[in-house]
Write a structure and sequence with these properties.
This protein is of the alpha/beta class. It has twelve helices and twelve strands. About 40% of the residues lie in helices and about 15% in strands. The chain has a seven-stranded parallel β-sheet, sandwiched between helices. The model has no long low-confidence stretch (mean pLDDT about 95). The structure holds nicotinamide-adenine-dinucleotide and thymidine-5'-diphospho-beta-D-xylose.
Length: about 350
């Protein structure tokens, strides 16, 4: 039987891909998409679902308990993605991150708790950054679900706070909670402050790309649609109280990634500008996703690296107008023009 799924942060990068994924792949389900439309929220990413009766958009903040009470009356389960998500911004404004990612998560958990048993599963979409960093010189080390949480940036601390709160509501109140911890995502509709869209837009426009430090930091890249599949798998079959790592087994140094991106944009290495490193820059993330593969049968099924990266670069080239409207600020008028009465 179909369910009504509350997706928070559904106007963001992963959220909009997830809403699209659910509407296209789970025909019996409906989505209530709740988002406060911060700078990172872009409803244009879901313009083709504006009039879909299975997609309801609610303009609200996860900190607004009254609004949440009204929405909770018509949903069956929750996928919680709304967050401040950019590490660099967290370095300059930690308090916003703590407010949204910890207190906002608490507000949402409390709203679910007030509904008692009428709401089923709550999935907290956490991140691999809760584990801190791994050394560059020992590739045998990977993050598993039992790796101690040791977040390094204000962003990572705020996500860890939300992650631990979600678990505490399972332990204390018996709520049905699962947690996912995914590695770096790439794909369509990512806000152009993040490295992949930034490093496509700049070379196309004849600018240099600002690579932090020497570029030796490593990230484990996963296409966003694999992440969406995994979140749905955890929603359907995850064990309550458990956390699941999600990752691509696809470690790339930033320098390797940068070289691939500028080549795909038709530029040579003169397009790379080494700039001052990010404060506290985590060296390496690498995920062991054995648990979700073994217990829930999740396996990435789409085309793998580098084809998925090439397709993503092509998407940004083909959708210049989407990026242009983000950068001009025009995207922020979409809600007003199409939804607000
Ligand atoms: P994003 O910044 O693109 O989107 C975040 C969305 O949350 C935006 O639409 C924004 O408007 C909304 N939002 C922010 N504050 C809100 C509030 N107070 N109330 C309601 N909505 C609010 O982020 P993303 O990259 O799509 O990440 C989504 C989630 O996945 C985050 O929780 C992030 O920590 C997690 N995550 C991201 C990655 C990644 O590589 N991007 C990897 C692992 C986990
Ligand atoms: O201009 C840049 N230059 C650069 O060298 C930017 C924006 C980034 N980088 C480097 C820093 C990182 O090592 O590229 C790498 C990726 O940076 P981001 O795209 O900012 O992602 P990251 O900091 O790794 O965090 C992402 O993955 C984990 C998401 O933004 C988080 O929300 C998620 O939890």
């Amino acid at each position: 039987m179909g369910q009504t799924i509350l997706v928070t942060g559904g106007a963001g990068f992963i959220g909009s891909n997830l809403v699209r994924f659910i509407l296209e792949n789970r025909p019996d389900d409906r989505v209530v998409n709740l988002d406060s439309l911060t700078y990172a929220g872009n409803l244009e990413s879901l313009a083709d679902f504006k009039d879909d009766p299975r997609h309801e958009f609610v303009h609200a903040d996860i900190g607004d308990g009254e609004k949440l009470d009204e929405v909770m009356g018509r949903v069956d389960c929750v996928l919680h993605l709304a967050a401040e998500s950019h590490v660099d911004r967290s370095i300059h404004d930690p308090s916003l991150f703590l407010r949204t990612n910890i207190l906002g998560t608490q507000s949402l958990l409390d709203a679910v708790r007030r509904r008692g048993d009428s709401i089923g599963r709550f999935v907290y979409v956490s991140t691999d950054e809760v584990y801190g960093e791994l050394p560059l010189d020992d590739k045998s080390q990977l993050f598993t679900e039992s790796t101690p949480l040791k977040p390094n940036s204000p962003y990572a601390v705020s996500k860890t706070g939300g992650d631990m709160l979600a678990r505490a509501y399972w332990h204390t109140y018996g709520m049905d909670v699962c947690i996912t911890r995914c590695s770096n995502n790439f794909g369509a509709y990512q806000f152009p402050e993040k490295v992949i869209p930034l490093f496509v837009n700049k070379p196309i426009e004849g600018e240099q790309v600002p690579l932090y430090g020497d570029g030796s930091n490593i990230r484990d890249w996963l296409h966003v649609l694999y992440h969406c599949e995994a979140i749905c798998r955890v929603l359907d079959d995850g064990v309550s109280g458990e956390a699941y790592n999600i990752g691509g087994n696809n470690e790339r140094s930033n320098l390797e990634l940068t070289k691939m991106l500028i080549e795909l944009c038709g530029r040579d290495e003169s397009a790379i500008k080494h700039v001052e490193d990010r404060l506290g820059h985590d060296m390496r993330y690498a995920i062991d996703a054995t648990k979700i593969k073994r217990e829930l049968g999740w396996e990435p099924t789409r085309s793998a690296w580098p084809a998925a990266l090439e397709a993503t670069v092509q998407w940004y080239k083909d959708n210049r107008d989407w990026s242009d409207r983000v950068r001009s600020g025009e995207y922020q008028r979409f809600y007003e023009q199409n939804y607000a009465k």
